[in-house]
Amino acid sequence: MQSTEAKRWGQKDAGMIGGGCLGVGRVLCCLALVLACAGAVAGETLRSAARGMFPMGVGISDRIGNLTNDWSLLTAQFSMVTPENCMKPNPVQVVEGRFNFTQPDAFMAFASEQKLQVVGHCLVWAKDDRTPPWFYREGTNEASSALLLERMKKHIDTVAGRYRGRVAMWDVVNEALDDGTNYLRPSGWSKACGEEFILKAFEYAHAADPGALLIYNDYNNELPAKREKLIRLVQTLQKRKAPLGAIGLQGHYEIGQVPFKDIEDTLIAMKKLGVKVVVSELDIDVIPRARWWADGGKHREELAKLDPYKEGCPPEVLRQQADDYAKLFGLFRKYAPNIARVSFWNLHDGESWLNDFPWRRVNHPLLFDRERKPKPAFDAVVRVLVSP
Ligand code: XIL
To answer: Is any atom of ligand 1 closer than 6 Å to the C-beta of 61?
Structure first.
């Protein structure tokens, strides 16, 4: 039991790293080494380069089954996939009791045909605009905490139960920590239940699929103030013996502003707590976006017109992005024994959600461009992963 389950989510894309070089093989290996030093690391993919460290994953379109041009890039580079939207509470159960599994089922079938492991995302999204409104209502009143938890249990039983044994990892609760001064984000969930809903979500998910690695997932949770809340949450879950398997750092970063030290401090803190980390939604936006939320949103009109790289991303920007990614993967490599997965959010620049969020612009945040060709950042990442 233990070893099968460990294999289900703990798979490190096991295999030989440069081992077994004999005769002709050795010559080829040397050649590969020379080429590696000269330019791109010949023949390496993300999954081969990260072998023995962590599985490489990616969040992909729910319609991947139709996107045949994506398939070869996807399966060459990645071993795990997260559906971008179709398993979220809203699409799955927008009306109470009326579950929609058309896309999730198709997604699961595609993944199984292509021998890709699946990360389910997400059972509870602790934000009001991401929770179907009926969850919170009881007639014309607010639902009691008991009713809210009952509905949550039904949702989790139905969704995680349907894919029991076939989802390697679940994002059980998404984005429950507050960005401001509160511990938890104000929402119908925290208002009715306090942090109890998070504990219960983990218990219900574990009962529905005992073998899946269960994740608490959030953004900016490496930044010191939110990290303190994360540590508090992990300690509470541990004290209550909740089946927390890992915490997720979404990893939506901005060029030139990746918080390397905060990330490292968080990796160390989680290791100390004995909890694994997944990097769940990695991308590096080349058009800094923080001003969108600054000063009560007063720059939005101006920002909405900003689209500096619509004719292409300048080489110096791609270089800086490559350097940022290389430094990041240096950290991931250093803490690899405690990292259960590194996933990007979207397969290539043309599919990135950052072309639309938080305003519409032509973005270039990933390792592959719109032609699905590797960018300088791809080479930089592979080189860091395979370097001695
Ligand atoms: C995003 C999707 O990529 C978009 O297509 C959708 O419109 C909104 O959600 N954090 C998460 C993901 O946990 O689910 C979000 O995905 C990106 C931020």
So the answer is: no
Extents of the domains making up the chain: 46-56+278-289+297-388, 79-250
Q: Is 250 in the pocket of ligand 1 (CB under 6 A)?
A: yes
Contacts of 202 (CB under 8 A, 6+ apart): 172, 173, 214, 216, 237, 242, 243, 244
Of the candidates 57, 27, 29, 51, the residue with the CA atom closest to the CA atom of residue 42:
29
Average pLDDT, the chain: 93
Q: Quote the tokens at residue 267.
A: 């990796």
Residues annotated as catalytic (active site), given as ranges: 175, 281
Q: Supply the pTM of this predicted model.
A: 0.92
281 lines ligand 1 (CB under 6 A): yes
Backbone angles phi, psi at 180, to 5 degrees: -100, -135
Q: Which H or E run contains 339? A: strand 339-345
Q: Which amino acid is at 311?
A: E
Task: From the options 3.10.450.750, 3.20.20.80, 3.40.630.30, 3.40.190.10, give the CATH code of 79-250.
Answer: 3.20.20.80
Give me the percent of the chain exceeding a pLDDT of 90: 89
